[in-house]
Fold these 3 entries.
Entry 1:
Amino acid sequence: MSTTQIFNSLIESGNRYANSLTEYSRRKTITVNIGDVPMGSDFPIRVQSMTTVDTLDTIGSVEQTIRMVESGCEYVRITAPSVKEAQNLDNIRKELRVRGYNVPLVADIHFTPNAAELAARLVEKVRINPGNYADKKRFETIDYTESAYQAELDRIREKFLPLVKICKEYGTAMRIGTNHGSLSDRILSRYGDTPLGMVESALEFLRICEDENYFNIVLSMKASNTQVMVEAYRLLCKKLNEEGLKPYPLHLGVTEAGEGEDGRIKSAVGIGTLLEDGLGDTVRVSLTEDPEFEAPVAKALIDRYSNRKEKSTIIPSFTSTQHSALSIQNSFDSPINPFQYFRRSTHEVANFGGHNVPRVIADYSQIEVAQHEDLKPIGHFYLPLPDKWTMNDLGADYIYTAQNPAKYMLPMGLKEILDASVWAEQGDKLNKFPLFSIEAYQVAPEKHATLNFLSTSLADLNEALVEQIKADKTLVLVVATNNEHAMPELRRLFFELINQEITTPAVILRKYSDLPESDFQLFSATDCGGLLIDGFGDGILLQLPDLSEKAELITKSKSYNSTAFGILQAARTRMSKTEYISCPSCGRTLFDLQETTAMIRKRTEHLKGVKIGIMGCIVNGPGEMADADYGYVGVGKDKIALYRGQNVVKKSVHADNAVNELIEIIKEDGVWFEPVNDLEL
Ligand code: SF4
């Protein structure tokens, strides 16, 4: 099928943003030539990252680029804040070629068309930010008339055309890279701080390129808010289809994802969700760590889809006889708006559904709960002296003990779920809850008066079961699948619950074989996060792999619990930790970002739910502050601006004292409290 035929067929499909919601199918794109590493759907999804050393440090940049290539990067981006740095890209490129590295280089441009125009003559690709290429940010809301807005677009065209012409002449590729944190005043005034504003920001520039018959373009829609990021990419695909613009390759990324486990989980929630939909042709994972640690994460996310098509066998529709009364008829029927977050409407059952945050159920089916210590990995601590239990912010809500009832009375904040057959034999049936299979549920002589769990899969749904589920207001579903293409199958199940007007809360259950911890985090964050981003899931149960050693199970239990809370936070459905929106740093960074982030984290990580932005420079600073409660932004060499929300409260504090000053601001707001150290694991 030709490209034209592909996008014509997409346009006919209305709200479509992907090829299919029921089987893995990569979105078809045109090919973009970037040096000798082409990008697009005819090629593997590419890995890339960005250097962090000063661009004027030629050898430092070359050596870091080589380390990045060795770690898996297929493109390397280098910042060019001014003409000086743009010019030095030539030296960096030449030295790399001398050393035998042909990796395409990408110049990263903010604010400086003259640097872009020079870089476009020297390297394989230029990234521009449509939010600041032709505009200076003044944080003004302007009421544009149609003609005033058109005059602005004409002004942009005039500023942008020279770069387009140079790229065309030199065969240089371009990324039009929108960033949620740096939308122009013009876009913010007309569209607000929205996914639509992000999309329009890129399209204004893209239309100019197409008018000039320049198509060697990649697009991105990055945000640190995973919901906004996913919605913007999906909306972009829809808008490209609707306007008859070409299906350009997509560069996926979550900005300012942070570091360590949180950064990886957040990246997987955003990037993984889109990869599941078949979107994405290159991935950059942004961690506040050295860039050579980013490529392996990107690669692990991408590799999961290498053979996905062969492995996925999702039920394509409910048109079989068994499901004839159910409503989903083709691979793209969807009862939700994929471009705007709404949580699926559910009724409250105990503390599930309704307005309750999604619950975390820890898997203790293989761990005998015999000593107080056994609950420590999931955030519940026994203090012998006052003889009481306490919990930290990552205290699980339930444990699933299956066939092995706990040997002592659990703390108040923790409830127990047992397999129904074992529950039926318990003396205390009131404070424990049964998990039924469908067969057991249908013949059960006794059920709990207020809360019963029912294991369900997509294939189980039929008219009789739908009626039973609707009639029982004590039920919480536990939804599972063995399908490798798990997220779409479970999403399809949720679609069907909506179509059948079932408002029963549902817990997402996932079980993986004994994966390396890093893959487990990424895969579970993709599968559960993708559902949560679409508004699905009233709880998570991550089952442990089958293991024989209790010590090993306990260790895993701690990391699984932390991952579950991390996923809920990354999908913005339950805040249980301090949120750090920290940029990955680059050649523009004005202070030691990794060290500073670690220092701020050490001092503030007990402030549950507080969001702190840490930005190496002003480029994404103020915009990202829209999403943060407090901000720490580099404004000059070792000079820091401190923000409360979007407002600067201290303009230029020396880096030596800036963390203390930040804490003073938090204290002034009454948000500060002293950490309690005895709850640390
Ligand atoms: S916010 Fe961070 S990564 Fe982005 S340009 Fe500034 S220093 Fe570089």
Note: The longest helix spans residues 146-170.
Entry 2:
Amino acid sequence: MADRYQVVIVGGGPVGVALGVELGLRGISCAVVERYPEPQRIPKGQNLSQRTLEHFYFWGLVDELRAARVMPNNYPIGGVTAYKHLMSDYWYTPPGRETVQSFYYEENDRLPQYRTEAVLRAKIATLPSVTTYFGWNADSIEQDADGVRVRIVETGATSDGFAWAGFGPEEDVSSDAAGERRTLEAAYVVGCDGARSFVRDRAGITSSGENFEQKMLLAVFKSRELHEAFSRFPEVTTYRALDPELEGYWMFFGRVDVGEGWFFHAPVPNDTDRESYDFQALLNRAAGLEFRAEFEHVGFWDLRVIVADSYRNGRLFIAGDAAHSHPPYGAYGLNNGLEDAVNLGWKLAAVLNGWGGDKLLESYGEERRPIFWETGQDFIAVGIKSDRDFLERYSPERDREEFEEQWKGMSRRSRIGVYEPHYEGSPVVCGPPGGVSSAHGRHTFEARAGHHLPPSVLSSGRGVHEALGPDFTLLAFDANIEAVAGLEDAAQSLGVPLVVVRDSYAEGRAAYESRLILVRPDQYVVWCGDAPPEGVSPADILRRTTGTSA
Ligand SMILES: Cc1cc2nc3c(=O)[nH]c(=O)nc-3n(C[C@H](O)[C@H](O)[C@H](O)COP(=O)(O)OP(=O)(O)OC[C@H]3O[C@@H](n4cnc5c(N)ncnc54)[C@H](O)[C@@H]3O)c2cc1C
């Protein structure tokens, strides 16, 4: 006898567990299968964007997340970039995420990924529709027209606490290490099973991108000496050294705490192994001084920027690192993975609850894939290449004056302001004619179809985000009464859950530049204006945005 769920999630890393929370809060029955009983203690995935904190707000977990921080409250989240090594005379602190703060409802934060996972796991334990199989491995998946069957086996898997599913020759849990077996049946399966995704493989989904043929080291260590040496800088959390010999790849220290906890990554020769390589010497080179590191973990991954060619095959979906993997340059991984979970979560729930169409499910990949393709190419790979070009072209040894001039220019460069993922080209958004979904955009307080809803304040003093419903919300600011009634009636007849928020069109709300704004469950605007355009009925708008139009 198989256990039956609406959704089975394979992989209970941060993205799988977040998807479980998203679906569980929507009352969808689901199982989360994760091979390790406990989150792995690699302090990766630390920099959480403002948008990610918005997800935690809607999951009711902001206070819990902030309480799980390791860094002191209000410790600045920023980074130093130095030339060659961190004792160099040339260093700067580039503009950070604070530059876009006012466009989001929550502030960004920083904590080790295993702490974030613990917050999500605690929440999932309270959700009655979610069953967790932590310590179980999925080892076979079959789909047909009626559903999907996933075979799972209790692994009894143990690790040193530092196992991870990044690209590279890391562990693999074999199914013969087996305990109890079960078969889970579901309408849909989502693979949140990391870069070497088994679900992606079984779904026959190929990937494209760039393999840099470069081995990377990840070390976790303790050193108070390093903390003291870095007191030459303002308080920041990351320290990046650009050495011309490393062709644009970073040597990178990240704080785990303020005092002694660190992680480090850097390129290493491709034949490096744990036994013969002098990791301490590499750390000294990056720091620009000799210090003692007490290593807790040393691992490797291969530097690639790879995106799956499709995020779906029939009833199988992939999300997070299973769909896109890349080096941790710019904190795009977990933040994008959580956005995948939120994007897919409400769509699966809408379809399973009967008011969303299959086009909505199809739109998950249509929206998310171009964003990550551009993130990988235009923000990560281009960043590596432009650092490489800079280091090849300018050098203080060759021409100090020219180098200093260009280094100053580099210190002012930031791409954070133009990273504004949007779905203008989505088939389930009433976007502008010829709109194309893209990671490139601009931040503004204007409401725009296909874009994240910027914050504003209602006349009651509450934030607009506090008034949003769990499903669709219509913001109506001194709006045409007939147009509001038309949308309400259409929602009722189509069975689309809709909350209407009425207020005056004045103060901050006028910055939206629309009296009617239709917002979907992931806080993206799907339509806005003062009334539906000529020839378009409210029902047309709702059918399109719920993927139910013919
Ligand atoms: C050094 C470093 C620093 C980083 N810093 C940042 C940052 O600051 N910000 C950011 O946004 N991102 C960052 N990232 C990226 C981030 O860590 C990843 O994007 C994130 O872990 C992806 O989460 P995931 O749940 O998709 O995959 P994973 O974390 O890889 O989780 C996948 C899970 O699936 C499980 N699994 C795999 N196969 C099976 C199976 N067959 N059955 C059952 N379970 C299975 C694995 O055990 C694992 O727990 C960093 C990464 C590194 C390496």
Note: The longest strand covers residues 207-222.
Entry 3:
Amino acid sequence: MFKILQKSFKTGIVTATYPKTAARVSENFRGRPEFDFERWRDARPAAEVCPTGAIAVSDDGASAEVDYGLCVFCGQCAEVSRDGAVRVTREFELAATDRRDLVVSATHAKTIGRKLDENIRRVLGRSLAIRQVDAGSCNGCELEIVALNNPVHDIERFGIHFVASPRHADMLLVTGPVTRNMELALRKTYDATPDPKLVVAVGACGISGGIFGTNYATRGGVDQVIPVDVYIPGCPPRPEALLHGILLAVGRLARSGNPRRP
Ligand code: SF4
């Protein structure tokens, strides 16, 4: 007992202060790739190497569209873009309430995100119970979600905790491309969660099917099966990105960090 206390005093407080202060991100962390559409003369090489088809390009290569909901942040587009128009940043606060907000293009057409119901935010904003649903993920997202409960990220300091039953939950945190085997289970879990409820799609797979896409075995994203309130890009999203998306969902953060935001 004495040794435990001694160690605790020696270690001090390890809990990160994010989101009050900026997150400490490793030099090597790969976040959102940034695209300078004006300088980007030919997007075809990037589109060819992109493993998830996140870059759609016109025949002459002059105009392109990038979907962050498909992006796995591999950085290959930056490597092949010799004009320096693509750069890998360390940005991770990318959660959005509208799927269309995750798509950027040369025209940057504006879309207005679906406003989360203010009543839901008022009811759930101060204390939140989350049921995590693995709808066929590789468990990469789960590893990051588990980290939310460690002493460094300590999500309980926000009054947010994970529960075992959807009947006790306010929010479903769903990972994976939604395999056909999990589709019914996801629908039933959604129906079992009492109103008002929120659904957050986690990672490239949860948003769009990611590297798996839509095929004989997967539905291609959570919103193909149940309504989604917030999308958190990443492959997998780091714990701070998850925290950002969850707090955004319950209205405890300004809608910041959106790639489309001017
Ligand atoms: S960083 Fe994203 S957009 Fe670029 S090649 Fe990788 S998956 Fe595609």
Note: Residues 108-115, 254-262 have pLDDT under 50 and may be disordered.
